[in-house]
Structures
1.
Amino acid sequence: MKNVGKQLIWQQYQKEIAEDHFFYVRSCIRQNFFPGAEATFLRILKDVLHKDVYDDPAHTTCTGIGYHTDIIPLETTMTVVARQFALMTEKGYKNFIPSCVTSFGLYLEILESWHNHPEVLNQIRKYLKEATGRTFELPENIVHASDIIYKFRREIASKAKYRLVNQQTGQPLRVVEHIGCHYAKMFPHKSVGGAEFPRVLSGIIEEWGGEVIDYPERRHCCGFGFRQYFIKANRGYTFSSVKKKFDSMHPYSPDLIVTNCPGCNVFLDKGQYVISEQEGIVYGANGYGIPVLTFEELAGLIVGFDPWDIGLQVHQVSVEPLLDKMGVWYEPEKKYRGKNNIPLGQPLQPTVLKTF
Amino acid sequence: MGELFDRLKKDLHYVEGMQACINCGTCTAICPAAEHYDYDPRAIVELVQRGDESELEALLKSDTIWYCGECMSCRTRCPRNNTPGLIIMALRALSQETGYFVESEKGRQQIYLKRTIGHDILKTGYCVYAEGLATTNYPEQGPIWDWRQQHWKEIMDRLGANYQKPGAGAMRRIPDEALNELRAIFEVTGAMNRFEKIENFSREKAQSLGMHWDESLDNEYVQKAYHGSHNNS
């Protein structure tokens, strides 16, 4: 096939994703809000795909949320990022994968600044040496964790126990993909597919049998806005953004929303509760919401991990309507159990939004 | 041009974000903050491009620079490769360095962010440490969050986290050596200095307003910054 027109344009949005040997850095939001998601990602990499991935106990926050709430100067964030690269270098790795989309964008931004201003990179090397005694190499390959799942989507599909297909009708499930702003909007050429039509999640969804919904506000921000959510007085910004997105996607009747950014997942999940309490509106069928899964959770579900092992019970919107459509086997009575099957009571029901 | 502009133009965010603006308004059309607030990133870029020192000073003292959510949607669309979101970051840095941030309601919110996110980073190594974060302050997190807070450790253990333990894993206890290095980086690179400025300027403002001030999150000044929303439109 000749590389002309759209083929040529698409070629510009391909990116190199390393095959193996990854240095993994965790997301503060994901660890707090979906602690099972990162464990699921590592389980898939190690046990399903048989890859080498290193999870260093000594790495820290990249300071991303502090940086984007503007309390942390750029030089500080750059030096903390340099420390993460130093840990990678010391452990002999060259392929760097952040779990967090804010971090991913930040790493790309910093690498670009260092490329454009080598004197800044030199200064940061001095800062890091002075503060920690460490030195570092730049990563050879830096991709987001969702890029890894995209790269191996066919291998995962070949080992899948379930597909994104309605078991009763045989029809593909209708899926909204929500890409975190900092995945592709800052550096489109560093994403899979660019900012307008990123393929990182849509490629996964289609490979696993689902149908991707294109809706008007598909690329609108989730509304997190850093200081806009953390300060109570500003939260109208966040939840008006969430409502705008749900009002826009609602006519297309999504069965599922998939996110690659941990913050977006919080706001698209919890935002449905907020809108139901404030406006009396529920966007899913039969009084339930539209389930919102992270890409790791979806991959775990597809390969047959127990839904409660991967943490689907910590979402506010119940996932059972999705599990039933896909034909996923689960034990309802074990949803709110702790380790060793210890009962942990039950969360209260919201006023409007129905939950299991 | 004057001293404020001289300082602004040295900021790498400004250098990277400001090329030459043609005032097309594409950034404003795509901006989530412009949908929600009386906010126009095009006008901000135009103002800094114009170079009027007194206009810049007024901007640094205003709520306007605090409306942006730093989603960077503007960067994707600008036909001239400007990034209003990065210019905003440079303006916010300058507003904090000069102390002008305490002259606006939205700017005064920085003390809350410093005392939560800033403290979490240095104390735990995480930007956000959500154990104990209650729905009284974060009611949007819903009843599932109350359940999670009641059984925080048990749920962490159930989902394979390495909660507060040494070694790798989610929500592990980040080693003291790593936290010491983080603190040293903050000292060397200016974050502690910025923290001190946020504290000092905020304290002086609280005193000038006759508001109660202490080192907690519960004092009158910080609470008003967290809850006050007179300028949301």
2.
Amino acid sequence: MATFKDFRNNIKPNWCPGCGDFSVQAAIQKACAANGLEPDELAVITGIGCSGRLSGYIKSYGFHATHGRSLPVAQGVKMANDELTVIASGGDGDGFAIGMGHTVHALKRNIDITYIVMDNQVYGLTKGQTSPSSEKGFVTKSTPNGSIENAIQPIRTAMASGATFVAQSVSSDIKQLTAIIQEAMNHKGFSFVNVFSPCVTYNKVNTYDWFKENLTAVEDIEDYDHTDSKTAMNHIMEHEGLLKGIIYQDKEAKSYQEQIEGYLEKPTVKKEMTLERETFDELMTAFR
Amino acid sequence: MKEQLSWKVGGQQGEGIESTGEIFSTTLNRMGYHLYSYRHFSSRIKGGHTNNNVRISAKEVRAVSDNINILVAFDQQTIDLNAHELVNGGIIIADSKFNPSKDDDLDVQLVPIPFTETAKNLGSQLMKNMVAIGASARLMNLEIQPFRDMIYTMFIRKGEQIVENNNEALKQGYQLMDQEMTHIEGDFEMVPSGQEERLFLIGNDAISFGALNAGVRFMAAYPITPASEIMEYMIENLPKVGGTVIQTEDEISAVTMAIGSNYAGARSFTSSAGPGLSLMMESIGLSGMTETPLVIVDTMRGGPSTGLPTKQEQSDLMQMIYGTHGDIPKVVLAPSDVEDAFYATIEAFNIAEYYQVPVILLSDLQMSLGKQSSRPFDPSHVDINRGKTITEDMDRDEAEYFERYSNEEDGISNRPIPGVKGGIHHVTGVEHSPTGTPNESAENRQVQMDKRMRKLKDFTMDEPFKVNGNVESELLIISFLSVNGVVQEAAERLDADITTISLKQIHPFPIDALRPYLDGAGGILVIEQNYSAQLNSVLKMNYHGHDRIKSYVKYDGTPFKPNEIETHMSSILKIKEVL
């Protein structure tokens, strides 16, 4: 059985020292090992940005796609081979700006993959511009007088989009993050995990300490029921999106693939490519 | 008796004009006639004039006709808009419900028949199309039984009564016309048909069926005219072979989902038109850079922007050849007709997977939506070639990544799909080393760029173009897609030494194979449907004899008619004589 070390390669990430993404990488590796996966059974699909480099730092099949498009590529991979465990990943710019359309639709479509966003509320790789999840008033190169737009609260957007699994954590809590990613991978359907992953270079506001002070764990909320969407949404709104833990899960929902009759009998890649003569004739007769 | 006739039915969109044409022409195809149809429609659901023009012939036809012989009108607008296309002595069969009238200057006959009234008396005015079909059948002196058979297959699901009512409507239409026959001048009787069995389908169907035969079991697409029929065909038929279609949120998602599926080893594709292709450009680059097979069908329509969404044009050519940033190896194909579209689609998937490149399969609106007769497809010509795709586990130490981008002589590296043991590697749109790790060194860049581009350096299809005529010719005409059928007919009408070429391999340009024909031609004429003569430009970029190359273009949204091309050709031939 593979250990988390088997999910490591010898490539040194190009992230800044202290970057939150290191812990996300480690948590994914640990969760994969804990879930009994082998590296060749995993495909990690990423977008563009600092976080997008993740696919190159985990030993597994990896596809580093274009900006904002990790989700459609990942969904295509899963539709082709249901036996693979598929993780899509990227940053807040990737998922909530250029790729937001895909995010909302992947949430509503419910294909059985896990989407992990490393949310640092700033554009790092392009050297410090505002992001969709930057707080109002946040000063960056592109918002010298402070952002005048409202911030997107990822878990609120996810709930509103019909998500069946919504979780949020912070990269400093690697133990909880690992447990959440394990649960997310076990969820039958689309699982969304937003991870606050501080940018130590361009975000001097939303720091590790800031999250320690401002995040509320759902375990600490009395009678919190993460299977009840109304409770989840109320608390998200009450805490302005600053919750951590498994926020919501619909265990009854069927994944996209499960709802297609016969689709899961065999992974698509293993299906016969040549048409039987009978099928050929029947289909051609329809053109007469 | 007539060797060929052109029949057109028109009315308001949404009142069954489409199905009238469909029932009439499908029956004629089953009777053994050759058909070629053209739909005029608008970008709206209901209302607005629509018509369906069917050319019926005892011999093969691959073009719309110069004019029409029979016009079936469900409203006055149909007469006002189309009667001028009738030949002298042509006939209008019109629903007497709207008191039809025609321009007195036109030398055509007007025969009012109570389509709606007859249908209403039989229980439903929906059957007015059957009355019109009966009347048309009588005029052309066609056997009635094949129409009855057609009605049976179409309506038996709805019950015997519906079949009977429709048969009665057909019969009464036939009889009503029969009473008029004594007043009708001229010959509208078709010669008997041959017995050969033929398909009757749109290009989009041929492409879709080709994709199924190529092993496609997953498709991702976004609706757009004139490509939607491909997605709809796949939605209906993929489940029969265990596959499925996702209708995505946009074209970027569609193409990247197809890339994901192809990367994971399941052949998949997407289809769209110009606007969708514009959105896919970055992803086409991703396919090229990551060497992930990809097939995109581009059914061209009138551009730019929303342009003429329901009209014929061939103006995406330059975008398809050049439209992505950076240099990638890419193939652009253009089937020569509907039959070829089936085989070309299978070939597109084989090329994409063998060379690990994006392949754009072009069509144009007229090829995509114009229903036409075709020889049946031959399953023994279906061949799936997956090239260097590795689907079986490998006995290999996985301490190091697999060299997915190893620098091979032919540029094509082995491609293990995710899940294969021993094949772990990384894939990225960033310039990368043989294992797929991002690598921006100057040396690696040059090696990898050369490797990718080498894959198609000497690429030529088995049949890069379809040629009719000799290497030496007085005039060589080059066209592509649906225009070729029109060129062919026009060329046959002229008593001149004309060679026609339907270019199938558009990119990389097959100059070596073409050169003998170009060198051997007195003059070269490129005929295409766009403003800026795009194919002509591509030819000139690859061939030096610019002074011998002439261009003829049309960009009004309607397909070429044979006489337009015939006139143009003969004027060119005359000029040459004078010189």
3.
Amino acid sequence: MKPVESENLRITYRKGKTVAVDGLSFSVDRGDIFVFIGPDGAGKSSTFKAVCGVLSYDSGKLLTFGVDPNNERAFEPVKEKISFMPQGLGQNLYKRLSVEENVDFFADLYGVDKEEREKRKEFLLKTTGLWEFRDRPAGKLSGGMMQKLSLCCILIHKPELLVLDEPTTGVDPVSRREIWRLLYSFNREGQTVLLSTSYMDEAERGTELLLMKNGKAEVSGAYEEVVKMDAEVFLITSKNPFTVYEELWKISDTPRLKGDIIRVVVERKKKKEFEELRRKLGFSATPVEPDLEDVFIRKVGLRKVELPPAFKPRPAVPEDAVVVEKVVKKFGSFTAVDGVSFSVKRGEIFGLLGPNGAGKTTLIKTILGLYRPTSGRVFIAGKPVNREVKKLIGYMSQKFSLYQDLTVLENLIYWGSVYGIPPFRVKSLVSKVSSVFELDRFLGRRVSELPLGIKQRVALLSALVHAPPLLFLDEPTSGVDPVERDIFWQLIRGLSTKFGITVLVTTHYMDESEYCDRVLLMNRGRAVAIDSPWNLKKAFRSSYGDAYLVYTANPFETEEKLRSLGFKTALFGRKVKVYSKEPITDGYLRKLGVQCIAVKPAQITMEDVFVYRVQNG
Amino acid sequence: MVRKELRELLRDKISLITVLLVPLSMMLVFGYGLKLEIKHVPVGVLDFDKSYLSREIVSKLTSNSEYFLVRSYFSSIEEADRAISSGKVRGVLVFPFNFEGDFKEGNGKFQFLIDGTFPYRAEVIKSYVNGFISRENLLLAEERGFALPVKVKTRYWFNESLNQDYVVAVGTLAVVLAIAPAVFSALLIVKEKESGSIYNVYVSSIGKSEYLLGKLLSGFTVSLFNLFILLGILVFLFKVPVKGSFIILIFVSVLFILVSTSFGLLISAFFSSQAAAFIGTVVLTVVPSILYTGYITPVSSMDKGALLTAHLIPTFYYMRLLKSIVFKAAPLSLLISDTLTLIVFFLLLFSLNHMLFKKREK
């Protein structure tokens, strides 16, 4: 009997008006780590809730341990075998109870007897490193610790199936790796894990994946199967990346310009033209393993965006557009930003990268003058922040400052009038750019009816109506799919290169940072590193070497062995990621006594960079 | 379950204060602030007669009671009119020319102008004056040697001194106990819905009745504590003399708390945010408890529709029980039917809860 089986599952809300899941079929085998990947609103949460019998589905077939969850009475005993962790940091915890009391409550809820409870509690809290914090109220833990406690709580009754809705979203990369390690160790004991994530780079960590979009499965299968394609993926570096980028569109609809690096999928039949282009333009192309984003983008296809000359910012800003000097921001005894300094050059795309609670939003609000820094100074366009300076800034907030009940055009006119731009000027701007932003069809529609990706572009445009030379974006792309995301970044890139607009952007998506010229890595209020993503990876490579994935039957033992040999490692599903300056082959590893099936080169990710920067201070 | 709730509550200082302070302050504000009695009404006198009789009436009306207070004497209608309009006086006694002469002919008439901006107050003032006049008439009639066929001698039973404050205090207790436990328990479940921790319960195999009983008991425990504080205020601060048995009083109050707690739980089935649940519960408990239970308007003066509504509201029965116990020391046999009604209400509400609480989202 499979833990979960689903055929043509359909879930709707508001009496069928909103379709969350639209004909989804999948099956989870015992011992799987099954990963659902997809942007916000793809239907992941709804599917999980239906699997746990918390939400009724409309039609199709769904069986959890062979029982239909819609059958309330019959499903009640099945709940003993399941644990569900809802989306959001520590959502299922009781914030005022201590760590230990939370675990005890869950034990009571599932009727775990006292002796068993004490034994298991100690084991769980010790493996997660929460034992020493057991008297602390859950509300006072960091995001990563809360998620670990949530896991302990739902593991107290030894469920057979763990259903985890985005357990790692917004968690710092170090805690994220710990959470995965914990999951692997339970999986090793035979527990099945069903998990969702909005991070593409977590796809590889499961044994099985399903990429979801608009309630449907785009692709599914084992990671290695899914990313197998009869096309090649290249990373391209060149002295003129923009020219190369423009030319590549002629042979492919997949080029992505990330910083100075271009990533592109080249089909077999286009290989010849690609080689010609390479000779003509003289760029260097390194073949890389395709990843899930490549697969998705190749399937859907990107669109090229060309900005019309409509955003020429009125006042020019000096070379040092934004200067932050030793800024400290304290809230009571809590230090949210701890002595951060950096400067952003005119026309640069600068990323603030870090997990939830790292201090990104506090920092951006301090720069904007919404908070007064406890100490340190901020200069925008060479001046301290005041009312006049604020007019130079376009700000797009985390939740998009749009009025849901107004139409797109009404929103834009409203934001224009806030900055003293008369409606006719806004309308003439909109008529010039609406086709580029792909908003033509939506101008008369209410914002509340729009999909997330469209809302995001409306929010961007509303931050741009007064032609500011500086643009601040707070988590602009959370929850949109890679295609929408690329369109968004093409717009940002255009604003920066064509009009010299300076862009400051925050994000907790590690891979997103690759679109930035430079990034500041933040953790717990401190700056961990500041450089271009490319240089950060290069620095990582020169200290730890290249990355390899070791395929093995016993990942835990393999990892332990590798560690004992002095390698830096990380667990990736049933694979082990190893960093080594010497080239590694399977033969070489076997000679060292490491069990392995195969070794493949892997990519160094921003997460790798982040983890080692944080751990090595 | 109960232990967890109470522990959480004790940790949360703000909630704790709210839970204990709100009923307390309601009790004090309503108990002290809501005066249904009208005393010391400022009146003016416009005496065109200036006779012995007119002065006699004025002095009898004012010196002898706490109801009226003479503020000013006017010399013209305009002056009196201005004083009423400006709210300086609430009524004006107008004695026409030759009032005493007419009176002697058996045709004495004087006018009483009442400020009608607040009808309830106007009514009460009118009844005071009427009562006064008829009493005087009776006395006069006897003086003149008429034998009266029926003599009325009024004595207020049960609340001998007719202390309106006692009635208000007891009524407030009922209203507060209708509102506070309901609001508190409504938030108990909705709070979990809002934070997402409700999924723990949805996904666990804990029974519905077990969960609901847990919530009921934790809401009940807190309210029980409140009950004792409120009873303390009633007896020691408002000094309401309780004639009936304290044990019965506490028993019916406990029963009533159970009813309003389960009502609150029931409400939480329909809301998913704390703000909405709070407003919903307040509206659904405050309005009926105040309007339809005899707290302000006597039940006997309601029309049929209102009377029917009143019988659907548990507070109505509890109010009746309370008044019977506190003021009348009514024997058990008279209390049994209202008590049973409350029990039925509780069972009904709790089974509705059980029916409506679904361990899933839709």
4.
Amino acid sequence: MRQALAFLSVIVLAIHGVVFRDQLVARWQEHQTQYFAQAEKLADNPEVKKTLAARRPAIEQIIVRSFGPERVDRCTTCHIAIDDPRFEKADQPLRTHPQIPGHKFETFGCTLCHEGQGRGVEAFDAHEGGHDWPWPLLDKELIEANCVQCHNDPGWAHAPKVAAGRKLFFERACYTCHTISGLSYGSIGPELTEVGRKRRASFVKEKIENPRASNPVSTMPRQDLTPEQVLELTTFLKAQQGNRITRAPIQQFLATQAARPESLPLTSVVGAEMAAQLAALPAAQRGEAILPKVGCLSCHKLGDRDGKVGPELGYTSVQRGHDWLMTHFKDPKAVVPGSLMPPYPLPGEAFEDLTQHLLARPLPALAADPASEYKELCARCHGETGKGDGVIAQYLDPRPRDLTKAAFMRTKTRERLTTSVMEGVGGTSMAPWGGVLGQERAKALVEYVIATFTKGEDRFPKDRKFPQANPVAFSVESAARGEAVYLNRCWGCHGKKADGNGPNAVSISPRPRNLRNKPFVTSVSYARLHESIKYGVQGTAMPAAGYDFNLSDEQIGDLLNYVLQINGLGQATPKLAFDKPSPPIPTAR
Amino acid sequence: MALLRDLIDLPKNVWNSVFRNPLPSSDLGRSQTTFQNLFLHIHPVKTHVNTLRPGYTLGLGAISMSLFIILCVTGGLLMFYYVPSVEQAHNRMLDLAGTVAFGTLLRNMHRWSAHGMVALVFLHLCRVFYTGSYKPPREFNWIVGVVLFLLTLVASFTGYLLPWDQLAFWAITVGTAIAGYAPVLGEHMRFLLLGDRVVGQEALIRFYVLHVAVLPTVMIVLLGVHFWRIRKDGGLSRPEGSDVPEAQTAAAREGKLEGLAPAAKTAKVKTFGVMGLVRGPFTKVGNAPDNTVYAWPHLFVSELFCFALTVVAILVVSLMFHAPLEAPADPTHPPNPSKAPWYFLGLQEMVSYSAFWGGIGIPTIFVILLLLLPYIDRDNRGVGVWFSRHRLLALTLFTTLLVVNLVLIVIGTWFRGPNWALVTPW
């Protein structure tokens, strides 16, 4: 034991040696000594030489009181030569800082522009501020973000990146989802009013480059941006720092208190200059001009631009009507309940212009053979190999049909499939293609798809008997009986809210129908709904409830009355059947 | 001449006036060294050889005490630089890292020692349980020990707030929210602790005073009681029958342990007098041969070894790992998830299932069970032996609860992500 103690004591002493060595010599002292020596060599005046020779390393600091909370910047402890013009070519940390007229180091300090952790005197502490510091040294190329904290009039000419980033913020439709106090009012994505203060620039940049890097379930579309554009957008967002320095708290407060407007004026989205030019044009041309400027093409495809998130717009004129388009602009979920598209914060006139343009646009040229038709019109959603995994499939709800699935494709009649192509599927992103293809080409396309992608033989169901109209007239009692059946048999997959998100839904592909999709429910015939419940839907997880659960035609009628009711389609007032108080959720999180 | 002699003798005289007897070479001297020194006399003059077996105590108590000493010293030094104000606290932390000599090291040592003490005190509690050392006559010392463990937790928790960074602010917000789940009194308790409805300046000053004045004082007093009771309860627990000569270890019989006379020799020789009147079956007075050795040097060397080991460990850890310091506390931007300190993450995990039962009910029941343990489990078999077969039920129950708590802490620490959703740490 005594030998062990003696041994340990030696170790204790040795460690103390390490500790003291670390403390006695600091890097900043070496930098300063080096500076004194070099400056002494450069000095021509013996007096100055003498003063420099007598100087000993000491911590230098600038205390900044004029801008926001007090800052203590000790950067000049190492960067001691920033105001010495003779060190322009020296290596960091002893290089001269360029002189910026009107910006004295003693007044402004360093971290106001460069960020970092001013109190640190070790390079890592000062530059990175430790691992959890939200404001590490700002990249030189992003520095404009901090210039505009004081120089905050919108036309300031020395921050071109911030100005370009602001333009991108509107062009790429960021404003439709994100709020920046005083600029935009989107509520789908997180608020960005103080994003530059809350997040590291590296995080913002990564988020723009790949929205799912930090949050794998993010619905933010990935944008096709050049590295310069990413930099501009990052600079603009890094500049969003709330009232960090100059904006008075009262202004900030008033900006948040200002009533949320119905829409943003076109001038603040496309800029005053362009808005003035637009006024002179006819409606359809106005629409053509603003369409690429308000963000449509950061998701949709039109001509050679493709945002790879939303459907193709080139065929709109033969697919959608005026009312559909106007409704869709104001509230996309009203026509496609699973749509990812935000309600557009533009004035009604702009919608009218866009609608006029989309309806007047000539159709793109299209080769008249099924293979190239599939490639042009279908592959973007259904995928090159028909698996329902096209480039935009992940953003669509419900997902595009997997055309390779024989159990589905081979059990539905050709007429039904052709109808889906011709008339589209209500409440989904499947648009009507009849106006583009016509009956014969649509039929040929269906044949082509089945022959090319779907395996197996046709197995059309036989001997199915189901009523063409509901055997039970709608009544509140019938819907209540239907609700009871629903709660017993259906909610596990279709969900307690009947929105297709039941506990079993996660592992089911294709996902269960959202029964609250009113446009879908109204577009499908009663007979088809009844058949789907009674005999199941082959190729999906929907079981033949008429047999498995022994439901009679009348019970299925009740069930469908219930579905009508929750969509507000029965005569009785719709009610949320499942809006019973749920058990309290633990609040501690 | 006389003056010269006095000058020559000066160092010796100073030494002799400070230390009342020379380095001992006899048993009498060894006894005197112990009981004539204020700091040593809390130790017994003679210690049972079982107490000195590293495999029995694992030195856990001594290491805990060493950590407490390190915490008092580094904490005292940190107090010179710290200001308990919401405007200054975090800046002082930054200054500590940048411009104070040994500042980072001090903070690292204090931080890691605090975490270490929570862990080591708990391991010490486990050791005492697994060796059945809480059984009569040591019941009360177990209670003092449990109270000291709880005080360690509170001391660590109050210290957690002081850096006033995001980590501190939100950990304390979460931790004190747990107190708020107590029925009737919960919100009042929380208010009393924070001095406000939210964590702010009032909470900071309260936590500071508790951390640097109240808790250390109470702990030092209770530590005194804890050590004093060890002696009064007859030393550390040991296996039944280990006091009789047959039980002397081979090493002792061969005379390798200094101060432990072979049984035949001590049988008729009185080696020490009555130092105090002690109740209970263990402290031997008189001629009976026992299995004890002199505290000087055996016990003191062991304790010093534990202390040196602790210092080395803490220094190495502090040189290698920096204490975390996040951005200044910002009440408007909670991190997601906000987590309590690791030793309360088991609680937070339980709170995520049931606020009252997880945060208040189950912990209260556990603490009461811990306190009452020596009065519930009074079977005196299996004392002084690790994992005695006679205590199978008690061991199984305790181990189960221990493992459950550890699993909850592991889940809370590594498997909980934003919104307290389950995530994988890799």
